[in-house]
Amino acid sequence: MATASPAADGGRGRPWEGGLVSWPPAPPLTLPWTWMGPNWGQHPGEIIEFPILKLNGRTMEIESTFHMYVQPVVHPQLTPFCTELTGIIQAMVDGQPRLQQVLERVDEWMAKEGLLDPNVKSIFVTCGDWDLKVMLPGQCHYLGLPVADYFKQWINLKKAYSFAMGCWPKNGLLDMNKGLSLQHIGRPHSGIDDCKNIANIMKTLAYRGFIFKQTSKPF
């Protein structure tokens, strides 16, 4: 999901970008994680990429990376539109773990990184609300999977940018990079590249003195 507006195919598939920020009492950390790239153009949309970057909350530098491709199960064949948009080809998802297994590995990674410590306050950062408000809970509901509590609150980077800069980034990451005079990193709609852009935008806003706050409402 590069934006929070409905997808061109009626909202049936979106990429996912995001991050996680944690503050004291533990050492500050930031965790930008970029989308669950769904199998665009089919219903239900399915997550096919799940990258997360962990950033240091003081330096905003990347400390750790989680990145997996996901085997779609309802529509195992990717659409041409999905491949053209994301650059993800069939061979990249064939034989990969399914969403349930990927979410289990996310949880293991979060624990290993100390992000499940009750003394660590953390929150995800997404480019739009769609990722955690609609896409992830929607697919989990369809597959009968639970949604971890840490996915239920987040910061919408587009809202944070609009608070800091006084204008809404209609075209998501592209507009935010342009507004901050930043070079766009990698390919648009590549999950891991979008995640790097989120991290870079967060770093730039933080260096300008912006303080990130939760934008989502409690479930």
UniProtKB/TrEMBL annotation:
Region (Disordered): 1-21
GO MF annotation, one: nucleic acid binding
Annotated keywords: Exonuclease, Hydrolase, Nuclease
Residue ranges of every copy of the Exonuclease domain listed in the record: 41-211
Transmembrane segments: none
Keyword Nuclease: yes
Stored PANTHER family: 3'-5' EXONUCLEASE ERI1-RELATED, 3'-5' EXORIBONUCLEASE 1-RELATED
Protein's UniProt name: ERI1 exoribonuclease 3 isoform X5
